[in-house]
From TrEMBL:
Region of interest: Disordered: 424-479
Keywords, sorted A to Z: Cell membrane, Membrane, Transmembrane, Transmembrane helix, Transport
CC terms in the record's Gene Ontology section: plasma membrane
Pfam family, one: MFS_3
Low complexity bias: start-end ranges: 436-458, 465-479
Molecular function in Gene Ontology: transmembrane transporter activity
Coiled-coil stretches noted in the UniProt entry, renumbered to this chain: none
Name the record gives this protein: MFS transporter
Membrane-traversing stretches: 109-128, 182-200, 238-265, 277-297, 304-323, 329-351, 372-405
Length: 479
């Protein structure tokens, strides 16, 4: 396309792909570093302590502050602007992660110090991840890209990171030790901060405008703004249904990646390289699924594709490890699951952006994420206790059965018929300003509702395959 294309609907024609490309680049580097760390940190704890329970405790200490802080950060992101929140929290994460290998090299890293540092990382990652998520619809509008394609490309970026990161993490841990993976994670956080702060177009990611307060009344405070997001979410049955279902699968996925997979790798003799192999098999196939979803998701019936994707991406991963299958069978099952999971994120992201006005996006997504992820801190603890009590294979069988029942029975509820109702409308209208929705391409009024379509979320073995109500895929604990 010519660089001199005319501006449309207030969106500059010159360099129009820069907003989305810059945001995706920042996502790519930070997610890749996190996936590297998701291999390195659990292996470091398991190798140095020999305790599945302590491995789960590290995950708990990161994800608990992640969920709690993110739940209350929505009004802050809306007020300060997602761009400022994103680069500043990534900078703090870089410092906190970098302190882990530094202290370890000096013999000063106690287990309790490690727990404190991962808690800091979790606390700042929550609002940082949220800030990047809420910039996706603006980046799509500025780049004149359909919303589902933008969320699909975000999914592709996530899957590429989930392919490259675990493979690099497994190789780094095997060759240089787990601390090398944490160094890579710290550098990635720093680079992501620089991209968001410098590379994005001027004016992108600013604070959302508040509707004018009635004459004589003060501007709404934090808790009133927080309550507006909660009230909106409570009136969206489909988003609530997604949150409940994904909340259960997130607990199971958290335990799977942080405890069950590392224990399987240790007991089977596959080691950290085996974790990297299964993660990469899942991730490569997920990239393929995400690319297809980015191209055709806007033409597909969401509900059918959504539950088919979960059927492939969920329970089979647990069962193939429980049965002690040969490595080639494990890789095949993970690859099929990865392909199915690639269709999930574009659907879930599009549903959220269609239904939530831009003014409320930070608050609603923060609440949706946090409610869906509330059980993640306990996933590793539960999995560690289960392995200690009954062994690896029974724990995998119970978790796989629970995953299958959750992702199939929930689809019988009537709320899921709403998945296709607002398809094609782009970003949601804001009832406070009575403004009509604008298409994701920024080309004018939204089209009439089109029948049928799909969404999805967090995962590879390190990231749950589905995300809730406009939530970002729950990232594997980074450390």
């Amino acid at each position: 396309m010519s660089g001199g294309a005319p501006a449309v609907a207030g969106i500059p024609g010159r360099g129009r792909t820069r907003p989305l490309a810059g945001l995706l680049a920042a996502l790519a580097v930070s997610l890749t570093g996190t996936r590297v760390s998701a291999i390195a940190l659990p292996w470091f704890v398991l190798a140095t302590t020999g305790s599945a329970t302590r491995t789960g405790l590290v995950a708990f200490c990161e994800m608990t502050p992640y969920v709690l802080v993110k739940a209350f950060s929505g009004p802050v992101v809306d007020r300060l602007g997602p761009r400022v929140v994103s680069w500043s929290t990534d900078a703090v994460s870089a410092v906190a992660v970098g302190l882990v290998p530094l202290l370890h090299s000096q013999g000063l890293l106690s287990f309790w110090a490690l727990l404190g540092l991962v808690a800091v990382v979790g606390a700042v990652r929550g609002p940082g991840d949220l800030a990047k998520e809420v910039m996706i619809p603006e980046a799509a509008e500025r780049s004149r890209v359909p919303l589902e394609r933008a969320t699909g490309l975000s999914g592709v970026t996530e899957r590429l990171a989930s392919t490259i990161g675990p493979a690099a993490g497994g190789a780094l841990v095997a060759l240089l030790g787990p601390m090398s993976g944490l160094v890579v994670n710290a550098v990635a956080f720093g680079l992501g901060s620089v991209i968001i702060a410098i590379a994005l177009p001027k004016g992108m990611g600013r604070a959302t405008d508040l509707p004018p307060a009635p004459e004589g009344e003060p501007e709404p405070g934090y808790w009133r703004r927080f309550g507006e997001g909660f009230t909106f979410l409570r009136g969206e049955p489909l988003l609530l249904a997604v949150i409940v279902m994904v909340g259960v699968t997130n607990v199971l996925d958290a335990g799977f990646m942080t405890v069950l997979v590392p224990v399987w790798a240790k007991e089977s003799g596959q080691g950290p390289a085996g974790i990297g192999l299964v993660s990469s098999a899942f991730g490569i196939a997920a990239v393929a699924g995400s690319l297809i979803a980015a191209a055709v998701a806007h033409r597909m019936r969401r509900r059918v594709v959504f539950f088919a994707g979960f059927l492939l991406a969920g329970a089979p991963r647990f069962l193939v490890l429980a049965f002690g299958s040969p490595m080639w069978v494990v890789l095949a099952v993970f690859a099929v699951g990865g392909f199915g999971s690639g269709f999930l994120n574009p659907i879930l992201g599009a549903i959220s952006f269609e239904r939530v006005p831009a003014r409320l996006l930070g608050r609603v997504r923060a609440l949706g994420d946090s409610l869906a992820w509330a059980g993640i801190p306990f996933g590793g603890l539960i999995a560690g206790a289960a392995v200690t009590a009954v062994g690896l294979a029974p724990a995998l069988l119970v978790a796989g059965t629970a995953y299958f029942l959750t992702t199939n029975l929930t689809g019988l509820r009537p709320e899921w018929r709403e998945m296709d109702r607002l398809r094609g409308r782009g970003r949601a209208a804001d009832p406070a300003t009575d403004e009509g929705a604008v298409t994701a391409a920024g080309l004018g009024p939204a089209a009439a509702p089109a029948p049928g379509e799909v969404t999805g979320a967090g995962a590879d073995p390190g990231v749950p395959p589905g995300r809730a109500a406009g939530t970002a895929a729950p990232a594997a604990p980074a450390g």
